[in-house]
Amino acid sequence: MKKRGRLAKLREELAFVRRNLLVLMLSWVIWSPFSHATTVYEQMYIMALGASVLVLGLMAAASSIALGLARFLGGYLADRYGRKRVLVSMTFVYSSALFLYALAPDWRWILMAAIITNICLLYQPALSAILSDSVPPERRGFGFALASFLPELVSLPAPLLAIYLVSTYGLVLGMRIAYALQAAAGLAAATIRLALKETLRTEVREAPSLRDFLSEYRGALGFASKRLGKFMLISISLNLAMGFTRVAQPFAMSYLGLSLDAWGWLNLLGGIAWLATVLPMGYLVDRLGRRSSLALGLSTTAIAFLLLTLAKDMALTGFWHLACIFLILWMGMYLMHNASSALEADLVPRPLRGRLSAVLSLVADLAIAASSAACGFLYEKAGPASVAAFCALASLAGLLATGTFREPGRRHE
């Protein structure tokens, strides 16, 4: 009887999981392992093709700006022509463009490929909208966590794949193979996404015009300026802190002295820790509240950044010291991301969700672009420790902004 009771409770807990959520999770399950494998050494690969840390930061800034502008158009298309059409078509184009990473002779080709793929990510507002549309408001913290859980579970061995490829074939050739595998998996994921069900009813068939585009966004911008000012301020602070991720690999390996293999194993530990905490964090966001969860995540990242600032002075450069610090940092960042995503879905009405997702993403992208450029500049001109100090201050600024924010009384479905 107890077993039946537990199964009934589990079915009740997962009753909100429907077709769209299953399709998205399946596409991520196929694609994510190879995407994760390429990110393990991506920055070191670009530097091996001739980029400096400053160039790395500027490339990340250019990519973020391209992404923000593309998503601005993508939000309009998602709300006017439907989520599925934009998401599926651009997933095919994005995946095909990944082959450029595998063939790049120097970092300039990577820059071109990054801009192309980030333009293709104009589908992200559609993805965000269809995910929000498909999960009931009271389950969004857990639902978003669940949508990430299975892809991350199968992606757990991805750092081992990256270590194997780089150890066997060298950094450059190993990464070329990894990117080719990611591109092939992306094409398979795009094919699976053809099974998605549209969540926005629209009969619009005419070609878009500039007047319609501006008119559609006027209402979204008005809503954002009146209702989302404090949320955008928090988002800016979060993404200023996230700029660290754009130079994290040279920081860890070139500055703190981790080897390529050690960094790969640290990424594996990060995946294990994430899997152990992702669902509890989703529950935490739903039970503790978005605002309190944001504050906890920001506090955690601020502490981790402070430890990274002082790591050399405090002799915290051993593998296990750095593993603890980076795990604290990554867990804090994930909690921030989950809480802010759930809060955004709560604040934004469904008819405006695609456009407002694009507006909010543009604000975030401009912030992370500025932070990426600043982190690259600080790394080379003021020393790597100044990068972590800058991001610690950004986290503290976000914590102060969160303290002035009140959660909405009613959550949009």
Written overview of the protein:
80% of the residues lie in helices and 0% in strands. The protein is built from 19 helices and no strands. The radius of gyration is 21 Å and the shape is globular. The two termini are 36 Å apart.
Summary, kept brief:
The protein has 413 residues and is mainly alpha-helical.
Helix content: over 70%
Order of helices and strands: HHHHHHHHHHHHHHHHHHH
The total of beta strands comes to: 0
Pick out the low-confidence regions: 12-16
- Describe the global form: globular
Oligomer: single chain
Report how far the terminal alpha carbons are from each other: 36 Å
| Proportion of residues in β-strands | under 5%
Largest sheet: none
> Radius of gyration in whole Å, from Cα?
21 Å
- Indicate the structural class: mainly alpha
Q: Give the averaged pLDDT, no decimals.
A: 85
| Count of alpha/pi helices | 19
What key phrases describe this protein's structure?
single chain; about 80% helix; about 425 residues; mainly alpha
Write the layout of secondary structure elements.
Blueprint: H1 2-13, H2 19-40, H3 42-48, H4 53-81, H5 83-97, H6 99-103, H7 107-120, H8 124-133, H9 140-154, H10 158-169, H11 171-192, H12 210-227, H13 229-242, H14 248-255, H15 260-288, H16 290-309, H17 319-347, H18 353-381, H19 384-403
Helix pairs in contact: 2-9, 2-10, 2-11, 4-5, 4-7, 4-8, 4-18, 5-7, 5-8, 5-11, 8-18, 9-15, 9-17, 10-11, 10-15, 12-18, 13-17, 13-18, 13-19, 15-16, 15-17, 16-17, 16-19, 18-19
